[in-house]
Amino acid sequence: MMSKTAVLVGLVGLASGVHAAINVGVVWGGSPNMTGAGVRDQLNDNTWGYGFNAVILNPGDVDTLAECQAYDCLIFGDAGYNDDGYTPQMFSAVKQYLQGGGGVVTTGFYIYSNGGQGGTDIDFITPANITNYYTYHGNAAVSIVNGGHPVTQGVSNFGPSGFAAEHPNAGGDGGATLLANIDGSGGVYADDTMGGRSVYLGMAYLAAAGYGPANLRSGDADHLFENAVGWASSVPTPASGALLGLGGLVAARRRR
Fold first, then answer.
1. Sequence spans of domains, the chain
2. pLDDT digits (tens, 9 = 90+) for 62-81
3. In whole angstroms, what is the distance from residue 201 CA to residue 232 CA?
4. How many other CB atoms are found less than 10 A from the CB of residue 94?
5. Does domain 19-235 have CATH number 3.40.50.880?
6. Is the separation of the CB atoms in 95 and 125 below 8 Å?
7. I need a surface site. Which of 26, 140, 155, 224 has the fewest CB within 10 A?
């Protein structure tokens, strides 16, 4: 017979995906155009079971390594107005954070705002190759090309549905894995070779309202985003976590 403790541990694993709350920083430089609050709320609604605790940060809130380490994942992007407010000191700290095992997700218009700076800290923290800038997509369609990765697990093709995106003209970095195309060109990449985990999503989740980010707040676009943040934070997908919890229950029963 299983002990009450074993049952409790197993049930907690099933309910929570065997991880604590995931602390996420949405880094927003105070632009009146960037929809940081929309991204924060999108994560905190817990649609896909991750249990995110997302907050909005200024670049000055994460311009030291110690400040960055308060979060499991940091998110960056741009409104489409080149007004993200990011600073060299912030990028330097985020690079150290990623090298030390942190998680970073960069989103659409990151290359628009920061492209052409290959070999810099700006380039290091994203798995997209930003050296040759980007191509803009005004009404994008996303097609999954690697459905076996945790970032794309359970996600189907989506769009076009009125949201903007970009893709890096130079593709992904050497260690990056291509996960999805945007209008036929590589637009979603993941990399775990830099110490921590980084994801680039070409869809403009943080863009100004006129670029259609509201069309990325639900369905497969939302699922992809939450998977990306969860994977970058080094936690299992909720389905995988539930299976781990169930495995704990089974193992405990067999030991009795």
1. 19-235
2. 999 999 999 999 999 999 99
3. 12
4. 27
5. yes
6. yes
7. 155
